[in-house]
């Protein structure tokens, strides 16, 4: 299966630091690797409704939720591009991941089997100089990948607060050049400092 990257943009700011860093990393992908970029701000998802024990979820046929589902199923690599908000992913990113729970329980979708062996990556920018404050975000992504039987490529971390600050983070920009070149292992429980700075 040819590689296809889905970049899920979870920022409320267009062209923010996290997106800038993700685009720098994506520039290094080979030209034959398809890229799809979807902004959750421009394609807002409805709140997740937990129907467990009551009814099955049905596959969305139209709208933003259908767009995200189809893009997720088509991707070999999913990149969560979320700024660090209160030490974890943004609310729109969390809503996207919450919908994975519905897709797991949608008859005929085989979501977990489809995602198994694919790769989950993360890109985030934080204003703190201590990278360990991003550990909850990294743990969320690692453990989600482990549950799904996916590979986990780690999280590309950058530093910045004001728009464009991350472009002054030489360490992050250097790491962005090789971030997607690695061959990530299957994710494992529990999260074991899989963060890559």
Describe this structure as you would to a colleague.
This protein has six helices and five strands, in the order βαβαβααβαβα. It is of the alpha/beta class. It has a five-stranded parallel beta sheet, sandwiched between helices. Helix 1 packs parallel to helix 6. The longest helix is centred in the middle third of the chain and has 14 residues, at 91-104. It is globular. The two termini are 30 Å apart. The model has no long low-confidence stretch (mean pLDDT 93).
How are the strands of the biggest sheet laid out side by side?
2-1-3-4-5
Shape by Cα distribution: globular
The largest sheet is: 5 strands, parallel
Fraction of residues in β-strands: 15-25%
Termini separation? 30 Å
Helix content: 25-40%
Q: What would you report as the Rg, rounded to the nearest angstrom?
A: 16 Å
Q: Which class do the helix and strand fractions yield?
A: alpha/beta
Low-confidence stretches: none
Tell me how many strands there are.
Answer: 5
Number of helical segments? Answer: 6
User: What is the H-and-E element order?
Assistant: EHEHEHHEHEH
- Give the overall pLDDT as a whole number: 93
Topology, element by element:
Layout: E1 4-9, H1 17-26, E2 34-39, H2 63-74, E3 77-81, H3 91-104, H4 111-115, E4 119-126, H5 135-148, E5 151-159, H6 170-176
Parallel strand pairs: 1-2, 1-3, 3-4, 4-5
Offer a quick outline of the entry.
This protein has 197 residues and is of the alpha/beta class. It has six helices and five strands.
Comma- or semicolon-separated keywords:
alpha/beta; 5-stranded parallel β-sheet
């Amino acid at each position: 299966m040819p590689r296809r990257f889905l970049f899920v943009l979870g920022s409320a700011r267009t062209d923010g630091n996290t997106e800038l860093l993700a685009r720098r990393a994506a520039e290094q992908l080979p030209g034959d690797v398809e890229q799809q970029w979807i902004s959750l701000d421009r394609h807002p998802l409805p709140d997740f409704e937990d129907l467990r024990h009551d009814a099955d979820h049905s596959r969305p046929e139209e709208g933003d939720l259908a767009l995200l589902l189809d893009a997720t199923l088509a991707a070999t690599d999913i990149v969560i591009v979320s700024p660090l908000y209160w030490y974890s992913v943004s609310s729109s990113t969390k809503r996207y991941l919450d919908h994975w729970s519905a897709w797991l329980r949608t008859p005929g979708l085989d979501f977990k089997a489809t995602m198994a062996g694919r790769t989950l990556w993360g890109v985030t920018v934080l204003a703190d100089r201590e990278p360990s404050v991003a550990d909850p975000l990294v743990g969320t992504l690692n453990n989600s990948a482990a549950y799904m039987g996916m590979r986990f490529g780690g999280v590309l971390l950058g530093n910045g607060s004001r728009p464009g600050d991350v472009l002054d983070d030489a360490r992050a920009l250097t790491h962005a050049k090789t971030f997607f070149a690695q061959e990530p292992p299957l994710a494992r429980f529990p999260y074991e400092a899989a963060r890559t700075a």
